[in-house]
Design brief:
0% strand; single chain; 178 residues; mainly alpha; Four Helix Bundle (Hemerythrin (Met), subunit A)
Length: 178
Amino acid sequence: MRHWLALGAAAALVGVAACNSSQEAQAPEPQAEAPGNAAANAAAGPVDIAALMHDRHENYEEIGKAMKGITEQLKSNNPSLADIRRHADLIARYAPQVVSWFPPGSGPETGRRTRAKAEIWQDFETFRQRAQAFEAEAANFSRVSQTTDVEGMRAARAELANACKNCHDRFRGPEIEH
């Protein structure tokens, strides 16, 4: 019951999460704002686990694209602050939602393709703590991105990437071949 309450509360938030690599630097509008998003609509009725798992994957893809976009900008000689801020905003919006993307019954036991390890549900408190650390670093990076301090952004980006890695190392499985 506690997990479902957390799911409902977190799904009500507008937010951002964990940092996969991807090919595109542009980050589209978040899935959480789409009317069919299972995580965003979880409080409204029964959860469609397949839809939730799909949305979770898509949301993480968007976060990965945003992280890649930030990294590319911060490596350039003339970074676009507007692009960095746009990507930072997406991550900061998704980060508070991460815990809600993992209700009971949405892991490997479904038989569906997922990189989410069973350890998420076996040690949900540690997962929650790491997700909250990611949320804090996402908020910090977003705050720093509003300045013109590119070196500060680089340092905050490194901390954000560490928060991603801290969760990935324990709770994310290897790449799934398509």
